[in-house]
Specification:
The longest helix is centred in the first third of the chain and has 17 residues. This protein has about 350 residues and is of the alpha/beta class. The N terminus and C terminus are likely disordered. The chain folds into two domains: about 110 residues, Helicase, Ruva Protein, domain 3 (Orthogonal Bundle), CATH 1.10.8.20; about 180 residues, Phosphatidylinositol Transfer Protein Sec14p (3-Layer(aba) Sandwich), CATH 3.40.525.10.
Amino acid sequence: MADQHDSLTHSCPPVDPSAAAGHSWFPGPPPPIYSCTLTPELVAKAREELQEKPEWRLRDVQALRDMILKEQPNLRTRLDDAFLLRFLRARKFDYDRALQLLLNYHAGRKAWPEVFQDLKPSTVKHVLDLGFLTVLPQPDPNGRYILCLRPGKWKPNDYPFVDNVRAIYLTLEKLIQPEETQVNGLVILADYTGVGMSQASNPGPFLAKKVVSILQDGFPIRIKAVNIINEPRIFKGIFAIIKPFLKEKMAERYILHGSDLRSLHRSIPRSVLPEEYGGTAGQLDMRAWSRLLLDCEEEFIVEFCQPDPLEGVELPDSMLFEGQQASGQDEDTFRGLRSQLYYCY
């Protein structure tokens, strides 16, 4: 059975040594053959928080690999150690939940072809050039990289909202490569300066539900905090669209700071923030992350521009991503929430 996968899935995408050149602030791609890169402190943290035992690590990976080959023999997925470890860590080494997350990961691509078809950095260069997102060069004191989003930079007439989702997803794919991110998790800083009615009402609940579903249940990353700053009055309406789809633990990780930078600095210290947010780490550079992603074009082509990994796979009835159209209930919900947005505005 394993022979069906050997030519396609046991190895990770080829590593281009030049892809990481010039980006010394961010770790390069993992090597083809897994070798643990965690510091002793992170090994201890992974043991305590993720139930990861170094002496059992590769045994656990093999157990998950065996489950995939037995239960989903037609699934065209990577099976290398580094890739499968992402899913085990994200689900605290629970084999069944890690397998479900892997299936959700691939099902999300099938359910949302507008986002995942031909997904590579060059197709979202306009989003990167606009300054919609970046990753701050220094992690916080807990070792977590900070994804900075600026939704006010996007105007609905410029390009479809799904292009923003594509750029976010590519960024998350890059961020999850280093083992330290898999253990430490990620922090989001969302600056809502300039967000008005046109941006707030554009995605709608069906789109919001898909985004939240992918981030919560379809991607192997741990989002530890979402810091919202400079949110306008209509943010209550925006959050009303998102909140029904958030798990309780995730909803509790949203922190609203308004324009109070001192409040933000209690969550993210000034030493890692740019001057724009009262920090001491220099000016916000939106180009560095853009260059890093664009330099990894070939890597993403290998990862995403391939045949459908779910072709011929029978998924359980309880799969996360169901249907392509919004239900009548979703539309009714949107009408109510849209009126709430106008009231807040």
